[in-house]
Specification:
four-stranded antiparallel sheet, 0% helix, globular
């Protein structure tokens, strides 16, 4: 099991940027694909982005493609989500998650992820 702690959320105006971080405990972080999900009030949690173990492969939800960038630093046990051109509809609680299973494709489904952080709130004002 890996413990995950998100940070970097906050209040930003539409069009602005934020960088989320997710710090992982333990020495096995570099073995796991990582993902970001978000949950807006009254809605189900949805996939945002995922990154492979090496960091060379990424996948994004259509709603954030071209605006968000996921990256990781295995030496620092940290995964990042750079969010640009933020929109009010990006307002949500953002979670990072670890997938401990080796897969041919990056997971985009919540149930594929094993460990979750507590989330960090992102609020985008119009």
């Amino acid at each position: 099991q890996v413990q995950l702690v998100e940070s970097g959320g906050g209040l930003v105006q539409a069009g602005g940027s934020l960088r989320l971080s997710c710090a992982a405990s333990g020495r096995t972080f570099s073995r796991y694909a990582m993902g970001w999900f978000r949950q807006a009030p009254g809605k189900e949690r949805e996939f945002v982005a995922a990154i492979s173990i090496s960091g060379r492969t990424t996948v994004y939800a259509d709603s954030v493609k071209g605006r968000f960038t996921i990256s990781r630093d295995n030496a620092k046990n940290t995964v990042y989500l750079e969010m640009n051109v933020l929109k009010p509809e990006d307002t949500a609680l953002y979670y990072c998650a670890a997938d401990r299973e080796l897969r041919l494709k990056l997971g985009t489904i919540e149930s594929l992820y094993d460990d979750w952080g507590q989330g960090t709130q992102v609020t985008v004002s119009s």
